[in-house]
Amino acid sequence: MDDFDQILENGIVFKGASKGGPKDDGKVKTKAKKKKYITGAHGSGSARQKAKYREQRANRKSQHKG
Predict the structure, then answer these.
(1) 3-class SS at 10?
(2) Backbone region of residue 21 per phi and psi (left: phi > 0; alpha: psi in -120 to 50; beta: other values)
(3) How many angstroms separate the CA atoms of 50 and 37, rounded?
(4) Which distant-in-sequence residues (6+ apart) come within 8 Å of 62 by Cβ?
(5) Whole-angstrom distance, CA of residue 8 vs CA of residue 54
(6) Could you tell me if 34 and 28 are in contact, meaning their C-beta atoms sit under 8 angstroms apart?
(7) 21-51 residue pLDDT tens
(8) Model pTM greater than 0.70?
(9) 26: left (phi over 0), alpha (psi -120 to 50) or beta
(10) What 8-state DSSP symbol labels residue 12?
(11) DSSP string for 19-65
């Protein structure tokens, strides 16, 4: 009950976010962005199939600039 009494007397203080912010080291954080995963080179059949679809999508006429 001590916490409850303290809240009643002083109220609740909401603090803002820290100014530090996340530090970006330039590292790839997800598998989907890694070169071997995108090209399907790491041996997974699923990754090879997805890489094939990505290549087909990239080669579509609608994906090329004027």
Answers:
(1) helix
(2) left
(3) 9
(4) none
(5) 59
(6) yes
(7) 666 666 766 766 677 766 777 777 887 888 8
(8) no
(9) left
(10) -
(11) SS-----S---SGGGSHHHHHTTTS-HHHHHHHHHHHHHHTSGGGS-
